[in-house]
């Protein structure tokens, strides 16, 4: 029996740990900008990520779904790399890829990195870790040109799907039909909408559903948490879910070797 530790960094930032391997998805971001309101990373959490012996495991791999500020901050990534050197940084292509300054900076620092392009890419940076990127549309017509990926992490037989800002109206996510999933992570609009509920029920069928990309209570000017909690009660019999909305929130998921049954321990 193994345990997968899930630590909420903030917004859509999640740190996943099994054994000695840790993966950070969309966890170095900025709260600036307008539109979908974003809470900053809680005080002390960034420092814990940077410290060799911090309260949080230092990530071995940094993974990003797309280049929006609330998922990837170049400044914060640079600050992190001043303190720690991960095994690899995975980031989607786009205006900051290729000969862009972000990729040049990674090269100058000697940081191993992969620039993800195309419809689907799979990497296996170590024996017990596989990272797959599936190109999907970003929600909202104004973001039609954004290179956006859903990310499937398989860590020590634990499969986690991060849907980021996927356009659930145009993407059926049929790529994951029948795939045993330990957990799926969806944003509150995905979970709230009937189309998203149909995808969760008929296509993904994950053992656990986590709702992320939600402001913390003190920053929740649009009352997203209230909407999510209402939805969780509404769908508790057909699509039970856990809200990731508290600073320093974490959950442990039991992994039974050789089986596809995964349960939330706490």
TrEMBL record:
What protein is this chain from?
Answer: Metallo-beta-lactamase domain-containing protein
Query: Metallo-beta-lactamase domain spans which residues?
Result: 10-74
Protein origin, superkingdom: Bacteria
């Amino acid at each position: 029996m193994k345990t997968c530790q899930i630590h909420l960094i903030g917004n859509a930032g999640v740190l996943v740990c099994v054994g000695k391997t840790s993966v950070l998805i969309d966890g170095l971001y900025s709260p600036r900008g307008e539109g979908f309101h974003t809470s900053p990373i809680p005080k002390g959490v960034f420092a814990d990520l940077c410290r060799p012996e911090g309260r949080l495991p230092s990530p071995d791999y940094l993974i990003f779904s797309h280049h929006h500020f609330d998922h990837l901050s170049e400044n914060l990534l640079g600050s992190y790399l001043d303190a720690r050197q991960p095994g690899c940084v995975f980031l989607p292509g786009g205006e900051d890829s290729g000969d862009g300054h972000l990729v040049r900076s990674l090269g100058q620092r000697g940081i191993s990195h992969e620039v993800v392009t195309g419809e689907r890419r799979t990497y296996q940076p170590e024996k017990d870790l596989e990272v797959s990127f599936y190109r999907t549309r970003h929600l909202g017509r104004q973001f039609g040109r954004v290179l956006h990926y859903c990310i499937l992490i398989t860590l020590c037989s634990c499969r986690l799907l991060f849907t980021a800002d996927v356009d659930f109206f145009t993407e059926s996510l049929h790529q994951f039909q029948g795939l045993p999933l330990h957990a799926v992570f969806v944003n509150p609009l995905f979970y709230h909408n009937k189309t998203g509920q149909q995808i969760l029920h008929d296509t993904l069928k994950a053992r656990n559903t986590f709702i992320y990309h939600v402001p913390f209570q003190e920053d929740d000017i649009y009352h997203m948490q209230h909407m999510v909690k209402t939805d969780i009660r509404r769908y508790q019999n057909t699509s039970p879910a856990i809200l990731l909305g508290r600073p320093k929130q974490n959950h442990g998921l039991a992994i039974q070797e050789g089986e596809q049954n995964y349960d939330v321990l706490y």
